[in-house]
Amino acid sequence: MFRIANPDYLYLYALVPVFLLLFLLMKRWKRRALATYGDMHVIGRLVENVSVSKPWLKFTFLMLAYCSLVMAIARPQIGSKLEEVKRQGVDVMIALDVSNSMNAEDIRPSRLERSKQAIYRLIDQLQGDRIGLVVFAGQAYVQLPITTDYGAAKLFLSTINTGIVPTQGTAIGSAIEKSVASIGDSAKHNSAIIVITDGENHEDDAISAAKEAVSKGITVHTVGMGSPGGAPIPVLRNNSRTGFLQDRNGTTVITKLDDAMLQQIADAGKGKFIRATNSDDGVNVLMKEISAMEKKEFASKLFTDYEDQFQYFLALSLLFLLLDFLISERRSEFIAKLNLFGERKEKEVKKS
Fold first, then answer.
1. Which of 175, 209, 225, 334 could tie 95 with a disulfide, CB 3.0–4.6 Å?
2. Which class is 91-294 in CATH?
């Protein structure tokens, strides 16, 4: 299994286009500076030993060295030993609302982003528990099957946005049913479902779905993301707000937290209802509930030993730097002697 120990350093790759732009600007500045000394054709004859392609080759080697160095700093690792480890914990399925109303900004930076931040914090506090992700709007989909791989859970979570489910709506009941189906039968008495939504259920009977989950030994908690006063729904284009959603009459649509509905779902699911705010996302309360549940022992396969592979990328970086250092910007005299058209060129100069 391959993993990156320090993935945050991979953002340094974003500087590569910046370096390319600076290189192009430098080349342009040099051409303009040379042009101030006279006709470029004459200047080209005077500096004919200067290579046009070698600066590009040197820049390519320099960028390859930089990219290899960044990868070395990020510390790529390969799992070298697979072991089956016994763990004790509970199964936690998180059903996350990704309807357009979750873009509302009454909870900063938005309902959805705040929800994702809360899930990140929850994952960081889990110990031996398994976690899965279900996303829902008008329909529900399993985004991540139940797993003990917290790194994978964070990776899948980072890709979630309001465009991931094509059908709009808020099918909380369907999300609960998908979550129940994702939990193995043997673990249902040691499981919980956490529904994170603004509570505006328009599609199905979520209360009946919560009661069905309880009948199978699964607790259903709800977290309300939003405010009772509500907020307009931003219309996004390329991650930038271009306005707010309006109805057919041109009136701005206001989405409000339906805490009464979420309280009823939590009551039916024998769980807790938590109203998230800008200062408290309810993670601590959820962790108390999860910690109080009876733990189940289950086996999971883990890569217990990881070997660093950064040294190979570091060696590549040094190699590319050495090549950059050894290559001159001037043309090679040996290559110039192999120019089969040199005699013809000389004759053409004499004729002129």
1. 175
2. alpha beta
